Amino acid sequence: MKSQQQLHEVLTMPPLVDKQSFRNAMSTLAAAVNVVTTDGPGGRAGFTATAVCSVCDEPPTLLVCLNRSASVYDTFNRNDSVCVNTLADHQSDLSNLFGGKTDMDQRFAGAQWSKAVTGAPVLDEALVSFDCTVSKRTSVGTHDILFCEVVSVRQHDDAGSLVYFDRGYHHLKGQ
Ligand SMILES: NC(=O)c1ccc[n+]([C@@H]2O[C@H](COP(=O)([O-])OP(=O)(O)OC[C@H]3O[C@@H](n4cnc5c(N)ncnc54)[C@H](O)[C@@H]3O)[C@@H](O)[C@H]2O)c1
Ligand SMILES: Cc1cc2c(cc1C)N(C[C@H](O)[C@H](O)[C@H](O)COP(=O)(O)O)c1[nH]c(=O)[nH]c(=O)c1N2
């Protein structure tokens, strides 16, 4: 158990976690890699995201964190459709294409796409694609959190997974 003095020291510690320390710590969390797409009145866009997670299954909902300074931000803000395409193990080139400063037509030219129920682009060879409509948006710091209600799912059970860990790509084969 901590003494009164130790507790006092913990409670009065200055905030030591600067941006770089936070990023270094986050680089130790393995994450699936997704190309998140949209289409609609705002136009077509897509970006690479690891900040994606399951929120609840009733209704089936994911969240996606999007930096408000990203070039795709305005487009996502004007559309309600979102497709979260989780990349298969052979798709690291697509992650780089959608994660860099590349023209939008060039990004989409790098793969084959279909149209989802919501109108968002579905990546044909993705490990899994979640077609969604945005049910809620909220801002935290530099990012917007998009809550995305899943309206349909398409998956390829035989594909392996692309994992981002320690600032690099790793490949997980299925069973
Ligand atoms: N959530 C995000 O916005 C996010 C996540 C991963 C990567 N990225 C971007 O991709 C590029 C390469 O990233 P990297 O992983 O090779 O090295 P990095 O040192 O920039 O990031 C390490 C880890 O920190 C977290 N992170 C990075 N930037 C963030 C941000 N702006 N907001 C919240 N978390 C953030 C992520 O978990 C990332 O994997 C960078 O430009 C980075 O900003 C952004
Ligand atoms: C592996 C990896 C993971 C992420 C990213 C990049 C990469 C390489 N990026 C950054 C995002 O993809 C990038 O800002 C845009 O695609 C390119 O930016 P511009 O469109 O040029 O602004 C990113 N951005 C974001 O807002 N949320 C996220 O979760 C992630 N995750």
TrEMBL record:
SMART domains: Flavin_Reduct (SM00903). The keyword Flavoprotein applies. It catalyses: FMNH2 + NAD(+) = FMN + NADH + 2 H(+). One of its GO terms (biological process) is nitrogen utilization. Keywords: Flavoprotein, FMN, NAD, Oxidoreductase. Residues 26-171 form the Flavin reductase like domain. Pfam families: Flavin_Reduct (PF01613). Gene3D superfamilies: Electron Transport, Fmn-binding Protein, Chain A. SUPFAM superfamilies: FMN-binding split barrel (SSF50475). Its EC number is 1.5.1.42. Coiled coil: none annotated. It is an enzyme of class 1 (oxidoreductase). One of its GO terms (molecular function) is riboflavin reductase (NADPH) activity. NCBIfam families: RutF. Belongs to the non-flavoprotein flavin reductase family. RutF subfamily. HAMAP family: RutF (MF_00833). Catalyzes the reduction of FMN to FMNH2 which is used to reduce pyrimidine by RutA via the Rut pathway. This is FMN reductase (NADH) RutF. It comes from Marinobacter salinexigens.
